[in-house]
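Please, structure for the following, as tokens.
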Amino acid sequence: MPGILVFSMYEDSFLVQRALDAGARGYVSKSAGTGEVLTAIDVLLRGGMYVNPQYRIITPKHSWSLLSSRENEIVACLKQNMNNKQIAKRLKIAVRTVENHVSHIYVKTGAASRDKLLEL
């Protein structure tokens, strides 16, 4: 899920933070060049977040708010030390679907492995 990219005339760090807190995954000023806009779109399409570094944004240690309800269910199962097959059976979905969700969870939280994810 790519998320919301805010394209605004405002260049205020407070408003950028408010947009991110409200669920936006990126923020680009209307004064930004075409290259920055395209970069922001590419980052969001890969599951990341984009904000120009000129804004002083407080980045949370992890991004649980970015997870979908299904991804949150899968994290709960992972925290119970369930493997992909067990999760698939409990949630009545395919193992491959679980694997896809886990990959998205890694991207959204910045975790590189299950162990790192469980430490968050």
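The helical segments are 13-21, 34-45, 69-79, 84-91, 95-109, 114-119. The radius of gyration is 16 Å.
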